[in-house]
Amino acid sequence: MTEFSKEQVLQSLKAITLPEGGNLADSGMVSDIFISDGKVYFSLSVPESRVEAFEPVRQSTQKHVNELPGVTQTFVTLTADKPAASSSAPKSKGSQQQPKGEKPSKPEIPGIKSIIAVASGKGGVGKSTTSVNLALGLAAEGLKVGLLDADIYGPSIPRLFGLSGRPLQGPGRTILPMEKYGLKVMSIGFLVDEGTAVIWRGPMVQSALMQMLKEVAWGELDVLVVDMPPGTGDAQLTMAQQVPLAGSVVVSTPQDLALIDARKAIAMFNKVSVPVLGIVENMSTFVCPNCGTVHNIFGHGGAKDEAEKIGVPFLGEVSLAMDIRETSDAGTPVVAGAPDGPHAQAYKAIASATLAGLKGRETKGPAIVFD
Ligand SMILES: Nc1ncnc2c1ncn2[C@@H]1O[C@H](COP(=O)(O)OP(=O)(O)OP(=O)(O)O)[C@@H](O)[C@H]1O
Description:
Structural class: alpha/beta
Keywords: ATP-binding, Hydrolase, Iron, Iron-sulfur, Metal-binding, Nucleotide-binding
GO biological process, one term: iron-sulfur cluster assembly
Organism: Martelella mediterranea
Function: Binds and transfers iron-sulfur (Fe-S) clusters to target apoproteins. Can hydrolyze ATP.
GO molecular function, one term: ATP hydrolysis activity
CATH class of the largest domain: Alpha Beta
Bound molecules: adenosine-5'-triphosphate
């Protein structure tokens, strides 16, 4: 078990001197320190204008803690102390306007061309299943694809890929992603024991996510698909705001309730000026495995109608099918296990539509968003 305590880690930070004098331990910048399995996670809260100046402090802090006896890995991130949705600007119409051609101020992740978030307004609609099969569909288009499971509260990618164990350490204290079905895969589920993640606090969640983006040796990727936590709360909003997203995909079932939630997810991305590439309707119809009859048990077409109404692209639909569930549960997503079957075709069509949306955005520049 761990032979060092939070207090020891904090005390050791007295050795880190700040640019303006004083030491880090007494600065009040250090968040709660979280220790799991020899790994240490914490963030340093700095004024937004000082983020760049504090990067060397972050690096030396990380190195310093890494050298403490018993520490196997350290994750230190900088968090700019700024509430999720622009606290100073009034939330009036047009307050999130982003001038055409101006890049979002979020730093890009070197080597990763585009990051796409897969989100849902509520849990259990098939967001993770969609993320996995979308990522595989993009890889089938010949792209270099990574998959990041940011569903800190319930990471399911390890199960969906049949992956377990700890990732290996890469050069320069980076973490090597796992690889399966041609994808590079990283999940918080690989780093902490099952059940640990649920006790994480907000800043820790952000730290872990940013570490997984920046300190995993992703290499060159055309697309990184991020499986977001379900819902539209503060954690999701902050993630959508902090990660340099090229676009988002919102998954919904056709039921009214899920569509209301999907609308909330779309509003969330609009708020932080992330383009919504489109909606996926999951469990759109039920195809009876015995007789092949198609049943519209959830009121098929709801998401498509909704997408048209709110002017968001409709990326496609996926049936409720036992083989999608069974293959996922067995660690072989349907696009990998039955790439020529009807469900894989549906996911591949969604991947093509997503890619087309992404390319359209690239050439047009960021959208001007009014919320
Ligand atoms: N099209 C589908 N047909 C049949 N089963 C599906 C389909 N999509 C997802 N499922 C199943 O529904 C369950 C929930 O799916 P999944 O974990 O992808 O949802 P989620 O939205 O990511 O959930 P959570 O928000 O709880 O993480 C899983 O058992 C999955 O296998």
